[in-house]
Amino acid sequence: MSAPLLSIRGLRAGYGPIDVLHDMDLTVHSGEIVAMIGANGAGKSTTLMAISGVVRPRAGEVRFDGHDLRALPAHQIVCLGLAHSPEGRKIFPRLTVLENLQMGAFSRTNPQEIAADLESAFTMFPILRERMHQAGGLLSGGQQQMLAIARALMIRPKLLLLDEPSLGLAPQIVSQIFNVIRDLNQKGVSVLLVEQNARMALKIAHRGYVLETGRITLADKAETLLHDPRVRAAYLGE
Q1: What gap in Å lies between CA 61 and CA 54, rounded to an integer?
Q2: Nearest of 201, 210, 156 to residue 177 by alpha carbon
Q3: pTM for this prediction
Q4: What is the CATH number of the domain that holds 32?
Q5: Does the residue 134 lie in any domain?
Q6: Is residue 237 scored above 80 in pLDDT?
Q7: Is residue 209 in some structural domain?
Q8: How far apart (Å, rounded) are the C-alpha atoms in residues 176 and 166?
Q9: How many domains, the chain?
Q10: Structural domain of 211
Q11: Closest to 153 (Cα-Cα) out of 109, 200, 110, 185
């Protein structure tokens, strides 16, 4: 098997004097959707932030597409083809939908390619075309989530980090978001998905990790985890 697109070995990270992640090992190969599930406070968001450079690793190795990410600033990590759509959307509320999307392409210089990707975003999420000139902060929660994902895609990522894309959304919007994730993956985008809806996450993922208090406690094929009695009892409400 070829080298992983993303490889984490012995990762330790946290805030202030507190370690949140402890000796974490995780991989994502090209073409995969990998789901990470766990309770609130388990360290899932911290993992994504340590990958994208928002939180600095204290120990261990984080490699993406052959690059050592530990010493790189976040904006350089983006330029390597790694996009992060964070929990809570984190769009620019005073900028328009179009301006938010243009911000996602800050590292690119070809106007024709940017225009083509804007059109792709509007095709993927037609409501964003309708609201193109509306301030992002005036969108509904579901529309803001669509905008956050579309903005991340404007860098043409090799790997998309998605943090709780279904949080607080109506079931119909959740289904739409997960269909988009599946379609993106079929078009070649690898995805590391943190998601509270463990059942839906594992249904679209190839592999999964279970994170508990900053440690990986289970790692397997997603289908296997879906039928694991420990996962079913702790995360699937059974």
Answers
A1: 15
A2: 201
A3: 0.94
A4: 3.40.50.300
A5: no
A6: no
A7: yes
A8: 10
A9: 1
A10: 6-89+159-235
A11: 185
